[in-house]
Amino acid sequence: MEQTVTVPTPAAPDFSIYGLVMHADPVVKGVLVLLVLASVACWAIIIEKTVRLMVLNRQVRGLRKAESGQVDSRSAKGLVRAILAAAEREADEPHAPDESRLDLRDRLERAMRGALKAELQRIEVGLPFLATVGSAAPFVGLFGTVWGIVNSFTSIAQQKDTSLAVVAPGIAEALIATALGLAAAIPAVVAYNQVAVSLGRASVKANASIAEIAKYLSRPQARAVLRSAAE
Fold it and tell me: For the segment 159-201, what is each residue's pLDDT rounded down to a tens digit?
């Protein structure tokens, strides 16, 4: 009685995204890992900036109360406190006995604008990274794609087979890098533009409030209050 030997059929290749990534060239894998890390970092920055912008906009609205002296540095927090404290320190600085109200107003405005600029610069940390990812990620992904396509054509030449079954997997692996580069770049560019516009609008509103605060604090009746707060 003859025994039949069954030869196991080879497993079908995995054409899922996970399977393509796992079978990709090491250089392509490195590009994909780099883009994934950059994308995660961008989303962390985006979430952090979203929260900080919400707080900033609330504090800018709080500056309106300080325009009429309803808030001082001891009861204020965050941006409002930093701006009013800068005005109080400037008012406590030595000055000419015959200093006019206009001169005092200019000094207070400069001090408060400097404090505002310092606060905004703290929020701007991370924006250069978003800009860099937004401009460089597509090219990094394109590099991975070109590298993968070169390897794909090299394997075609070695196997001497130009069928679609041989060509398609290598090209699909390479194109994943371009897709991931765009997935990292698009949110980074959108977030960078949105944050930059929001910071510009907040700066305009805050500077308008600073002008009104300096106008109020330069009045004779407010100078005593300002100096007592600085002590």
Answer: 666 665 666 667 777 788 888 899 999 999 999 999 999 999 9
d(C-alpha 130, C-alpha 222), whole Å: 44
Please, where are the H alpha helices in the chain?
A: 17-22, 26-66, 78-91, 101-123, 127-159, 164-217, 220-230
Helix (H, G, I), strand (E, B) or coil at 153: helix
- DSSP states of 49-112: HHHHHHHHHHHHHHHHHHTTTS--TTT--HHHHHHHHHHHHHHTS---TT--HHHHHHHHHHHH
CA 227 to CA 36: how far, in whole Å?
A: 54
**Structure token pair of residue 62:** 């709080």
pTM here is 0.76
Rounded CA separation 78/220 (Å): 27
Distance, CA of 71 to CA of 217 (rounded, Å)? 12
Tokens representing 173 are: 């692996």
CA–CA gap between residue 76 and residue 60 (Å, rounded): 12
